Amino acid sequence: MDERCRHDLLRGQCADCKPPPPGVRAHGYRTRGGSAYHNDPSCDWLARGQRYAAARGQDTRAVVPIHWANVRPGTLEPCEHCCTTAWVARHNPAVAPASAWKPCEVLDGELWYDGHLSWEAARREDGLWWAEVRYSRDGQMLTAVRNENAVRPPQ
Questions:
Q1: How far is 135 from 51, CA to CA, in rounded Å?
Q2: What separation in angstroms does the CA of 69 have from each of 101, 106, 154?
Q3: Engineered SS bond to 148: which of 9, 44, 74, 129, CB 3.0-4.6 Å?
Q4: Helix spans in the chain (H)
Q5: Coil, helix or strand for 80?
Q6: What does residue 86 show for φ and ψ, rounded to 5 degrees?
Q7: What is the per-residue pLDDT across 96-116, written as a single tens digit (0 to 9) for each?
Q8: CA 126, CA 118: separation in Å to the nearest integer?
Q9: CA distance 141 to 121
Q10: Of 2 and 69, which is predicted with more confidence?
Q11: Please, how many CA atoms are within 13 Å of residue 103, restricted to the half-sphere of its CB?
Q12: What is d(CA 20, CA 73) in angstroms, rounded to the nearest whole number?
């Protein structure tokens, strides 16, 4: 028997009960006119988008809360920075296994820095493995997404 939601629809067909994709929280954020759905209202990439719009003389829009179930198909894409399973695990300690983050070295510019990584569950369309990385550069803690060519085991 197919699983039905509280609205008596198949769970995958109900807009109110549809589960968000992996790495996406049910409640998130966006800007009106933006094209990305964010888990974090202070996401670095969201702030970059705001700065980019301001630099081009465009209006910057307020960050507003939104529910994933209210996102019409094709209107918003999950942010590649804050809508990852690694981000969700890192921000929800009850879900984050200690083994999710592995020591590594991260390439930033021409230099390698000590850090930790959490691989995404599958290769991306470009055929590469990608990971969310955390590393310290010049005393500042940074978080980024890097492909397999920009990370290596600790030396």
A1: 24
A2: 30, 36, 41
A3: 129
A4: 44-55, 85-91
A5: coil
A6: -65, -40
A7: 454 567 899 999 999 999 999
A8: 18
A9: 24
A10: 69
A11: 4
A12: 12
